[in-house]
Task: structure prediction
Amino acid sequence: MEHRVLRELVEKQELVDTREVESVIATLQCSGQKEVNLAVKNAKIAFKSWSKKSGMERSRVLLEAARMIKEQKDAIATMETINNGKSLFESRLDVDTSWQCLEYYAGLAASMAGEHVQLLGGSFGYTRREPLGVCVGIGAWNYPFQIACWKSAPALACGNAMIFKPSPFTPVSALLLAEIYTKAGMPPGLFNVVQGGAATGQFLCQHPDVAKVSFTGSVPTGTKVMEMSAKGIKPVTLELGGKSPLIIFSDCNLENAVKGALVANFLTQGQVCCNGTRVFVQKGIIDAFTKEVVEQTQRIKIGDPLLEDTRMGPLINAPHLERVLGFVKSAKEQGATVLYGGSLYVPTDPKLKHGYYMTPCILTNCRDDMTCVREEIFGPVMSILSFETEAEVLERANASPYGLAAGVFTRDVQRAHRVAAELQVGTCYINNYNVSPVELPFGGYKKSGFGRENGRVTIEYYSQLKTVYVEMGDVESPFENQ
Ligand SMILES: NC(=O)C1=CN([C@@H]2O[C@H](COP(=O)(O)OP(=O)(O)OC[C@H]3O[C@@H](n4cnc5c(N)ncnc54)[C@H](O)[C@@H]3O)[C@@H](O)[C@H]2O)C=CC1
Ligand SMILES: C[N+](C)(C)CCCC(=O)O
Result:
């Protein structure tokens, strides 16, 4: 069972089943203008029949797809780990939030409805919530399967078609989703995967028959996607980067705060957009907190991500590893103390010795003006900062161009909600971090983007509202009997 999907892909997609470090796992062709045009053409045809189905009918297909994902959980998770490098343990969690997303939007598909408004003289109006048409999803490499599901499930539930482009660093797992959708009963071409990098992404954003673009990635690329979409007056959803604050007050449950700080920094080797990398700790507990954080970080098992007990695999590629290590170097140069980690890691297993591993890093003596505190590192690097008062920490936490997420650990209920209200972010976690139930909207403030994924509200980002006026009397014309 475990490698059935992998084997199928080996046959169909020239995927090479090998676990050797630095070996090629797949050779896929980039889609050019011709392939993008073809995908859009087929998506338009599929859209015609899919958009005419009732919400209940669409719901059944999504539920079947969710069931198949659940059934193939281990195979998909294995593939995701080979695709991305994150531990199998985490890939399984990602597969769970993926099928849950399909189930959630299957549940909402039949509830898409407008309203009826009574008007003067018996006339009335009503609104219809209609799909947009062919939507494009462009994904980042850190949560490849999950991103494909988080974008496609609401889009398809609303009656749209979707063309999805995964990151060229992680091209494989979105193909599994396409296969599952087709087997579950979606018309061919309704969910189409095109492969490639910037050029393919541009063809998609610029295509006149594309109605909407939902993008997950960096701020500079998000800016380009928005510019291209603006030329075609296309709505966009932008899920961009972050430099999120995690605020730990001295009245917190310290054990939970320490666990929360690790979850906020080290999932997927720290390559998570909403990570709470600026860890503000109130002066009274900073020594106890730091000691415990270092102890727990030292215990994180780094190595072969396909092993059951591994919790940290390699980073995505060599240039990115170098970039992350560069941030640690500049932090030291700017006066921060590397309390633990932050260096290249060579696993004992000889087959992994060229892997892109590093030890998770704890930086202390950080100042707000340091590069490691201002810029998104997108790696396992936690910066610990000390604070004294609530007002002070709120000002410092909000002094960032980003606004994706934040966390607050405290036992004071009023303070927790006061702080949550003041933070300029799209998601605020109280006494936890990086939990992402699909029922809750997720997205950014400020330069972290706009639009939301997950939650009921996302239906609005994948549909448009039509108003229908119905006259029950006669037309009163100002041009009559002049
Ligand atoms: N807010 C969120 O939900 C998330 C945000 N991110 C952010 O993404 C970044 C890391 O991901 P990367 O894949 O390196 O980002 P990236 O911006 O380099 O690439 C993202 C996607 O855009 C495509 N692309 C590149 N140039 C394009 C262009 N000119 N037109 C259209 N598409 C283009 C890429 O091929 C890829 O599929 C980080 O900054 C991170 O914070 C990552 C995951 C989640
Ligand atoms: C699942 N979660 C909350 C850890 C991360 C989701 C956003 C991302 O793709 O980085």
Remarks:
- The domain at 12-241+448-468 is CATH 3.40.605.10 (Aldehyde Dehydrogenase; Chain A, domain 1).
- Confidence is low (pLDDT under 50) at residues 1-7, 13-18.
